[in-house]
Amino acid sequence: MVFYFTSNVVSPSVTLFMGADKHENEDLIKWGWPEDVWFHVDKAGQVAFHKDKDVRKVKVAKRNNEIVNRLNKTKKEAFPDLRQEREERDRSEREDKKKVLREKKEKEKEEEKRKKEEAEVRSYSTLMRTENMTTNYDGNDSDDFM
Q1: Is 13 helix (H, G, I), strand (E, B) or coil?
Q2: Whole-prediction pTM value?
Q3: DSSP structure string for 38-95
Q4: Are 16 and 2 in contact (CB under 8 A)?
Q5: Which domain of life is it from (predicted)?
Q6: Which pLDDT belongs to residue 88?
Q7: Does 12 sit behind a cis peptide bond, omega within 30 degrees of 0 on the bond before it?
Q8: Long-range pairs for 129-135 at CB < 8 Å and ≥24 separation?
Q9: Phi then psi for 78, rounded to 5 degrees?
Q10: CA-based Rg of the chain, rounded to a whole angstrom?
Q11: What is the mean pLDDT of each run of 10 residues along the chain (146 residues)?
């Protein structure tokens, strides 16, 4: 079972996850998303972070139960399939990347085609074709100039 808490202090709101035991916490960490920040609080209140470099610490002069009470009001319990959620998200991200690459390749092909057409218009190869030529010969073979 995983506990969900919603914090509306920041915009957009964030969801906090809490495992009921160490096994669920390990699954949360294993199947969590790369941008997640993980921490552990033991019974004495000691906090240990999964990635210390991602932590921004704030000192609080006095304990404020208002914050804890506000979070407890948003508490929900669920049995999510964390692995499936992560795999779906990863699949979606891969599809988005492939789509962007396809669009980029299409734009490159269109640009190359446009440049080729412009180069062809500017070249002299189309000027001296026989089908484009006309004559001033009218069919009279007379040398009458005057």
Answers
A1: coil
A2: 0.54
A3: -EEE-TT--EEES-GGG------SS--HHHHHHHHHT-EEE---HHHHHHHHHHHHHH
A4: no
A5: Eukaryota
A6: 93
A7: yes
A8: none
A9: -155, 165
A10: 36
A11: 83 84 82 77 71 74 81 86 90 96 97 92 76 73 62
Tokens of 77: 């319990």
Report which residue type is found at 26. Answer: E
To which residue do tokens 């033991």 refer? Answer: 42
14-19 vs 2-7, strand pairing mode: antiparallel
Q: Three-class SS of residue 140?
A: coil
For residues 18 and 96, the answer to whether their CB atoms sit within 8 Å is: no
Helix (H, G, I), strand (E, B) or coil at 27: helix
* Length of the chain, in residues: 146
Backbone angles phi, psi at 79, to 5 degrees: -120, 75
